[in-house]
Amino acid sequence: MPTTETIKQERMHIRLDTLSKQKLEKAASYSHKKLSEFVLSQSLAAAETIITKHKQLTLSNNDWDLFLTALENPPAKNTKLNDAIALHEKAVGC
Description:
Elements: H1 18-30, H2 35-55, H3 61-72, H4 79-92
Helix pairs in contact: 1-2
């Protein structure tokens, strides 16, 4: 039985110029895929890369040390921190 993930119910329409379509068709052919399969797979791969990039946080050695210090010795709560916590809870529905 197909899962919700495998049932294709959504549709997207895009307009593009002839040269762009020909280029995509050629790449799809080289990949042994139909045009729609090729565009979807490449779009999803690009989307995953972008999402992953925005989820990651890279710190310099100095910033990492500051971060660890803050974890080990957290500052006392103040009004701004309490406001930020309340805003976060409102945004995520906690």
